[in-house]
Amino acid sequence: MNNSWKQIRSNLTNQTFSAGLVAAIFGFTGPALIVIDAANSGGLSHNELISWIFSIYVFGGLFSLFMSIKYRQPIIGAYSIAGAVLIAGTITVFPFQDIIGAYVIAHTLVFIFSITGLVDKIMKYIPTEIVMAMIVGVLIHFAIEMIQVIEVSPFITLTTITAFLLSTRLLKKVSPVLIALIVAIIAISITGDFQLAGIESSFVLPSLIFPTFSWGAILSVSIPLALIIICVENAQAISILKGAGYQAPNKAISRNGSLFSLVAVFFGAHSINVAGPMTAICTPEEVGTKEGRFTAGVFNGVFMITFGLLSSLIIPFILAMPGLILTLIASLAMLGVMMTALKSAFSSNSFQMSAFFALIIGMSGISFYNISAPLWAILGSLFVAFIVEKEHFVKRVYL
Question: Structural domain of residue 139, as residue ranges?
């Protein structure tokens, strides 16, 4: 431990500190609003919302600290944004306790797959194109709502979107979602829609939420969430780490993420996993030496834990903002995820027909037999792939 502390101090630079902070700010802004929006749509209580926020940030921060220090790599822990959107689509169908039970099953599956070596086989038999197209289908309503809220308040919406676009173009090292949020707060203050006077903020302890189990929730949540973590979140971050020259500990990332998750779920967390976009912020050469960039992960972990601990004091201020702002910022936060997913789904010549079916089934929001659209998107597209694109499986898994 003393040796780790010495290495952290020796690599304490403005660059590693800033990278850790910027990655954390990314996690504080749009992704947090997605969770809040999901909790509101599911009718969760204030305490359940606080527990959810507390658990994903505190345990995500602990995962960053543990993995970055142990493996001397900037392995940044957080939670699955796509998974949060998946939950937003199912939390209105099942009781929250059933959703928690589905989380337990999902992370148990990830743990089993990680220790048995089945992760690589799953990634071969469940094409990334299909999973990515399903994600776009589930997320697309955010982009549509971003346009629809123009009717509600053209001034706030267009000002915020313009700020996002300009900062994307001109401010390469600052999160455009953060700039958009700041501009949105200024805009709603000008219009008088943001009233701080009635806000009551007090410290609330997270509460334990005990799971119940239902086949509908397990099929609708557990399987899609496990596939998202394995085929999207972990695969993306591992590719980023390898691209930066690290020997990414693939099995340890899946195994330890599932173990952290299996504790965090009892406070409402849907997942604790390595975060691709935040890992990308902490891995470039400008962050520092290859051996020292792990310090950015350490700082990120500290910031994440702090935000989680103070969430009960911060969330009331966020909830005081008009609903259209939560929708707008959450939508802007999803743009990068959707564009990356679209590119991954349709940029190759493989599984194009099945990926298209995954997209439209995910968009449909279809739900029957107590199974919602995400799993039907995967099952339906695999059915299409085995009929129309079987030769692509032959190439991929050498059947």
Answer: 2-145+211-322+337-397
Contacts of 164 (CB under 8 A, 6+ apart): 176, 177, 179, 180, 332
DSSP state of 288: -
Token look-up 């589905």 returns: 102
Q: How far is CA 398 from the centre of its chain?
A: 32
Burial of 170 (0-12, 13-18, 19+ CB in 10 A): exposed
Q: What is the CA 136 to chain-centroid distance, rounded? A: 13
Phi, psi of 296 (to 5 degrees): -60, -35
Evaluate whether residue 193 is within a structural domain.
Answer: no
What is the reported pLDDT for 265? Answer: 95
For 157-166, the pLDDT digits (tens) are 899 899 989 9
Q: Judge whether 210 and 97 are in contact, CB under 8 Å.
A: yes
Say if 266 falls within a structural domain. Answer: yes
How many domains is the chain partitioned into structurally? 1
pLDDT reported for residue 198: 55
DSSP state of 222: I
Query: Does the residue 65 lie in any domain?
Result: yes
Cβ neighbours for 258, distance < 8 A, ≥ 6 positions apart: 107, 108, 110, 111, 114
Pull the structure tokens for residue 272.
């604790």
CA 31 to CA 317: how far, in whole Å? 16
- DSSP-assigned letter for residue 266: G
Collapse the DSSP code of 47 into the 3-class scheme (helix H, G, I; strand E, B; otherwise coil) and give the result. helix
Q: What is the distance between the alpha carbons of residues 108 and 114, in angstroms, rounded to a whole number?
A: 10
Q: What pLDDT is attached to residue 200?
A: 59
d(CA 177, CA 185): 12
Report residue 149 as tokens: 């809220």
∠ CA 110-301-41, nearest 5°, is 65
**Which residue stretches of the chain have pLDDT < 50?**
398-399
Q: Which residue in the block uniquely carries the two structure tokens 């700020």?
A: 163
Q: What is the pLDDT of residues 111-139, one digit of tens each?
A: 998 888 777 777 667 777 887 788 788 77
Within-domain flag for 150:
no
3-state DSSP call for residue 273?
Answer: strand
User: What pLDDT is stored for residue 64 in this prediction?
Assistant: 93
**pLDDT value for 132:** 78
What b/e string do you get for 337-346 counting C-beta neighbours within 10 Å, with b at 16 or more? Answer: bbebbbebbb
Report if pTM > 0.85: no
